[in-house]
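User: Here's a structure from my thesis project, written as structure tokens. My advisor, Dr. K., wants to see whether a designed sequence matches the one we expressed. Can you design one independently, without my sequence as a hint?
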């Protein structure tokens, strides 16, 4: 597990994201995600904000705005990296 993956896990869990969703986003086994959270002492906050999402690629916290479709990625670069990794990392047109 890389430092970026660990930070993404901790940020997502602190925001209230389920273990299974976090595992899918970072590409690690479910029990690895649970162990990481338990060791760091991160639990779901009691007053979880409903207008917070997490970038699917890097785990950065995204703030949801009213009357706007929720974002899934923080930048186009994260969106491209996420989908390229899901299809085997092959570049378009190559």
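Assistant: Designed independently from the structure alone:
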């Amino acid at each position: 597990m890389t430092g970026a993956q660990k930070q993404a896990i901790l940020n997502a869990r602190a925001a209230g994201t389920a273990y299974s969703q976090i595992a899918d986003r970072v590409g690690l086994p479910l029990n690895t995600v649970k162990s990481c959270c338990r060791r760091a002492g991160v639990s779901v906050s009691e007053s979880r904000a409903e207008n917070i999402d997490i970038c699917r690629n890097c785990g950065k916290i995204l703030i949801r705005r009213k009357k706007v479709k929720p974002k899934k990625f923080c930048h186009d670069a994260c969106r491209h990296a996420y989908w390229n990794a899901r299809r085997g990392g092959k570049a378009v047109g190559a």
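When you compare it with your expressed construct, this may help: Residues 11 and 59 are 7 Å apart (CA to CA).
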